[in-house]
Amino acid sequence: MSTSTTASVSTHILDTSVGRPAEGVAVRLAARAGRDADWQALGGSATDADGRCKDLPALPEGTTHVRLDFAVEPYFEKKQADAQQDAPANRDSGSAVFFPEVAITFAVVPGEHYHVPLLLNPFGYSVYRGS
Fold this sequence. Notes:
- 8% of the residues lie in helices and 38% in strands.
- It is mainly beta.
- It has a single domain, classed as Sandwich (Immunoglobulin-like).
- The strands form two sheets. Strands 1, 2, 5, 8, 9 and 10 form a six-stranded mixed sheet that branches. It has a four-stranded antiparallel sheet with strand order 4-3-6-7.
């Protein structure tokens, strides 16, 4: 719950290649108080069956920047293993996953809630400030 002195963050991931939530993606949260401050790791969670992280840690007072790190490579490796017959026979790179992780950094102000959805597919992603 946000107060007048802290911001709050939530996220979810939609796999646009299949039109479904991305379950089981590890998400780490970090924060800093000022552009030149060091990042403070706050912990993390993993997405549930709805692609949501419902238990991300609270942000410390004074947070001005937040970073969400999504470990998407294991998700896509599992998805590829589950559907091996549908995997492309030839890839442009030597890796099965083009973006093994996605890091999103954004500015926050006290008292506001920031919902940051990640729209994901094997070769691209998009983020936005949701509601």
